[in-house]
Specification:
The complex is a heterodimer of chains A (164) and B (145).
Chain A: H1 2-24, E1 28-30, H2 48-53, E2 62-68, H3 74-88, E3 92-98, H4 103-108, E4 116-120, E5 126-131, H5 136-147
Parallel strand pairs in A: 2-3
Antiparallel strand pairs in A: 1-5, 2-4, 4-5
Chain B: E1 7-8, H1 11-30, H2 33-49, H3 55-64, E2 75-76, H4 78-99, H5 103-123, H6 127-139
Antiparallel strand pairs in B: 1-2
Helix pairs in contact in B: 1-2, 1-3, 1-5, 2-4, 4-5
Classes of the chains: A alpha+beta (164), B mainly alpha (145).
């Protein structure tokens, strides 16, 4: 009897959690206010030493900085999406790092899971963040305020329409 | 990152997660420590011997895969393997609980394993993505290069 109740509660909890998770996963969100960030960041600008250690020194380009790990299937999806965006958008590059071998940066940037993607502007400021494999349209939308009108509209370029 | 050294048809682990969910549900309904012990062995084979030896994976390859279209994509075997390892820990703790006469422990551990298996089966939820980095952060000290 107890077991049946436990089973029902577990299935219900997992379903609710799964539905919420599926809605949120991969969402590209604007960066949190500077006050909520901490560690080596000043304002929302990332310590240049942290970025240098990741091979992502800001140089005027927008950087899609992706943290990945070995036990992570969506990291591959994220890689495909972000490298496509970088390839079709001038002034944008994709840098993928192994989270496990950069734990200091992971702590400084508050990375909790993989894949996590940070959108960094040319000065090394975090402008947006996505946990989970991001949708291509949302990544492109997040780039608009950073690049002005240079962003190709979603659905143009080499990809068939509707592919995200 | 190496380009998928060890690839599996992702539908195999997904079916395995459904079978696991059903087995764990039966464990909860019957409080059977022995059935949970069998599931713990299943987890252990997948996690430590490799997915090639995971019993539900064998089931998929022999009975199901021949009836389906060939896989259009492959995924790395590491994420499902990690999840099998996590499942093994919960199943082992739960088995101890049931067999030692602590059903609350058995129920709790089994429910957690069931939640993970169900999320994986129904939502393609990747446990390793959520847990692995957190565990590494907690178990590795700051200041290491």
């Amino acid at each position: 009897m107890t077991g049946a109740v436990v089973l029902a509660v577990a299935l219900l909890a997992a379903t609710v959690f799964g539905l919420v998770w599926r809605r949120r996963d991969g969402r590209v969100r604007p960066a949190a206010a500077p006050a909520t960030t901490h560690g080596t960041e000043t304002g929302d600008r990332v310590d240049p030493a942290v970025l240098a250690a990741l091979g992502a020194t800001p140089g005027g380009e927008v950087t899609l900085l992706q943290f990945s790990s070995a036990f992570c299937a969506p990291c591959r999806t994220a890689r495909v999406v972000l490298s496509e965006v970088a390839a079709q958008t001038p002034g944008v590059r994709h840098v993928e790092v192994d989270a496990e071998s950069h734990l200091d940066a992971v702590r400084a940037l508050d990375i909790l899971r993989t894949p996590t993607t940070l959108v960094l502007d040319g000065d090394g400021r975090i402008r947006a963040r996505a946990s989970g494999a991001p949708r291509k349209t949302e990544v492109l939308a997040a780039l608009v305020p950073l690049l002005g009108t240079d962003v190709p509209a979603p659905g143009t370029g080499d990809d068939p329409p509707g592919k995200v | 990152m190496p380009p998928v050294p060890n690839a599996v048809d992702p539908r195999g682990p997904r079916l395995g997660a459904w079978i696991t969910t059903v087995v764990l549900a039966v464990v909860l309904l019957t409080s059977s420590g022995w059935l949970l012990a069998v599931q713990a062995v299943v987890f252990a084979l997948g996690a430590f011997a490799g997915l090639r030896y995971a019993p539900y994976g064998v089931l998929y390859r022999v009975l199901v895969a021949p009836r389906l279209a060939p896989p259009t994509e492959f995924e790395d075997a590491a994420p499902p393997r990690f999840a099998q390892g996590v499942g093994f820990v919960f199943a082992a703790v739960g088995t101890l609980g049931y067999l030692a006469g602590i059903p609350a422990l058995g129920h709790t551990a089994t429910a957690l394993a069931l939640i993970a298996a169900f999320l994986n089966a129904a939502f393609d939820y990747c446990l390793g993505c959520q847990l692995y980095l957190l565990m590494t952060r907690l178990t590795t000290r700051t200041g290491t290069p």
